Amino acid sequence: MTNIEKLAKILSQSASAVFFGGAGMSTESGIPDFRSASGIYNQKLNQTFSPEEMASHSFFVTHPEEFFAFYRERFVYLDAKPNAGHIALAELERRGILSAVVTQNIDGLHQVAGSKVVYELHGSIRRSYCVKCGAKYDIDFVMKNIPVPHCEKCGGIVKPDVVLYGEGLDSDTISNSIRAIADADTLIVGGTSLIVYPAAGLIDYFRGQHLVLINKTATHADADAELVIREPIGETLSKAVALLK
Ligand code: BV8
Ligand code: ZN
Fold this sequence. Notes:
By secondary structure, this protein is of the alpha/beta class. Helices cover about 30% and strands about 20% of the residues. The chain is built from 9 helices and 9 strands. It binds ligand BV8 and zinc ion.
């Protein structure tokens, strides 16, 4: 039995699977990941600061101009389209096999592909808010108002609704994700290096039957997985869904 056939068999036996994913889910949509050789954190963008420093909350506060220049340049891929993997996950939800997508990604591509239950642990580039009065703005406002977007109501800085390093995650999103993972019969973990916390720690709540890892490189969770697939995740998910009756 090939790995794709094994994955299809596990999916056909699942009624409340959960997908836990990261940047590797969007590389087949042309969005670079972070820690692969070609990833964002390995590109020398700025002489003084490292990419991870520039994606931190303290940098947002102390260097807003550089933060927004880095953010517009490196995080926003508005013309990116969902790939076969996003579409396969939306199909699995429609079939009643998948109950939720838990993602660390901020690109919103799972929703564009049709997934309804998506928990965005690190927020989304599509939403922004005024740090002073909470007024909501869309991504165009942030892209157009150079160098630093200010609230039209109170003049406060308009921040992308993205969890930066050193920032806490939304508590409802965390509790919804934990509940989905704890109730899952199958957990598919894919396109993530499982390095960033507290997100990576959420998979420890899984106590179902089938743990599947789909990732181009090894992760610390591989040893516990029933099935490890070292192939591109978009192709893998879509081939497995195609085998379902
Ligand atoms: C918090 C948004 C406390 C912005 C992100 C020192 C100071 C402060 C904090 C810390 C510190 N040391 C440690 C921490 C904790 C820190 C952390 O975990 N750091 C890591 C680096 C050690 N965490 C935090 O700061 C978190 N907050 O702790 O706050 C607190 C608590 C309460 C109240 C106040 C404060 C916040 C973490 C969130 C940070 N924001 N993103 C941005 O987009 O950059 S994290 C960033 O990494 C992205 O969101 C990304 O999603 C996430 C995880 O990366 P991955 O998705 O896994 O991507 P990666 O490139 O690593 O891996 C991709 C994998 O896919 C690779 O393995 C590759 O082989 C594979 N792949 C690629 N293509 C494919 C593929 N596989 C299959 N098919 C393919 N086609
Ligand atoms: Zn405001």
